Amino acid sequence: MRIDRGLGHKVWGYVCSAPGTYVWLSILFVTTVALHHMSPDFEQDFLRQRSTNIHELSRNPGRVLLQSALWIDGGHWLPYAFLYTVFHAQAERWLGIVRWLMVCVAAHVLATLLSEAALLKAVNDGMAPHSAVNTLDIGVSYALAGVMGVLTYRIAAPWRYLYLAGVLGYYGVPLATSPTFTGFGHFVSVLIGLACYPLTTGHGKAWNPKETWAALRG
Fold first, then answer.
1. Torsion angles phi and psi, residue 127, rounded to 5
2. Cα(79)–Cα(61) distance, rounded to whole angstroms?
3. φ/ψ of residue 27, rounded to 5
4. Which residue among 18, 81, 128, 214 has the highest number of C-beta atoms inside a 10 angstrom radius?
5. To 5 degrees, how large is the angle CA 137–CA 33–CA 36?
6. CA 71: distance to chain centroid?
7. pTM of model > 0.70
8. What CA–CA distance (Å, rounded) separates 18 from 99?
9. What angle is formed at CA 15 by the lines to CA 65 and CA 168, rounded to 5 degrees?
């Protein structure tokens, strides 16, 4: 009982240390449950109206940029709960809620606009079908990729370079082998996160995995 109670306090303390992350995750849980109660045809139409595709961005960019970050395409919430805990919560605890949110917004908005601008050029040049202007494009993955990028500065050298290589490889290899506009957006998001270095200054010593391992060994 004491172990369970102690673990519960630690988990609750961790959640409270990153309120923005877990409020956002709670919203995604509610919207994901709502999606599971929609018929497939209604779901597609519903999400398309909240999509950051070319058509919707040209009509009401502010609305769709906000609403697209509140839904998960595919209806799988648990993987995002894990990823938010590993990446978003760590970034928020490190940077504080305001700077963490600035990274999220920058990655989500700028990567969306740049990837959709590239898609629009492809449509105008005849390299993509005109139907692409209504492509379903929602989700939180651009913000996640941006946060993964900025977390590079949370890790001490030389470990940060291994981490950065892993992140760039994860997003860069698919873009190089099977390029898509979404893949382009993810890679751009990582670069935006890296460009947010000025937001990371003055936020304590970088984490050294070697020191953590030594502490665990006693």
1. -90, -10
2. 28
3. -60, -40
4. 18
5. 75
6. 12
7. yes
8. 12
9. 55
